[in-house]
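Troubleshooting log. The previous run stalled partway through. Resubmitting the same two chains, unchanged.
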Amino acid sequence: ILNVEQSPQSLHVQEGDSTNFTCSFPSSNFYALHWYRWETAKSPEALFVMTLNGDEKKKGRISATLNTKEGYSYLYIKGSQPEDSATYLCAFAYGGSQGNLIFGKGTKLSVKP
Amino acid sequence: DAGVTQSPTHLIKTRGQHVTLRCSPISGHKSVSWYQQVLGQGPQFIFQYYEKEERGRGNFPDRFSARQFPNYSSELNVNALLLGDSALYLCASSRSGGADEQYFGPGTRLTVT
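Second attempt completed without errors. Output:
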């Protein structure tokens, strides 16, 4: 059974703090790693798709790194803002079933003003 | 461009009934995937369709079926509903369904009583 683990489960930070989350996935048969942000009452929003070992991607204050050999990805948020409050999901796609995303349970981030 | 749309938004059904959920992808997207999300869990993959062909199926019973139409819209059908089918059903579209970003709709909240 393929399993994707995310930690921590939840995180409470103050506005202006920088934070990071971890996504662990199987290191064999890797195809892609997706990150999504899911705000309450909205649709999950794609942040990054990463396919190469060592990939680093950035969108504004949010960035992500990928290590396919050891099976982990980090998501970083610099200078958290209240609007960053959301659940952050990672999803693993493996070779031979690329459209089948295996999601972790997510990290719920709350940013207090 | 309009995003992914799903209908209905909410639905209440009784055990044993049948339900049909609908999804319209983003214009130009040929792949549609369906996910089931229950509280506290990440979305779980049900089906992927590409160019009207089933490309992948998750670990769901045969009561679940889907199809994709020539205009790339899709239906998810669930027969003989069980209480455990109560969940948020998400549809996602992508250009080709490989490592592409998947764009999610707002979901259909199904309650089975």
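Takeaways: The mean pLDDT of chain A is 94. The interface with chain B takes residues 4, 31-32, 34, 36, 42-46, 49, 51, 89, 91, 93, 97-106 of chain A (CB under 8 Å).
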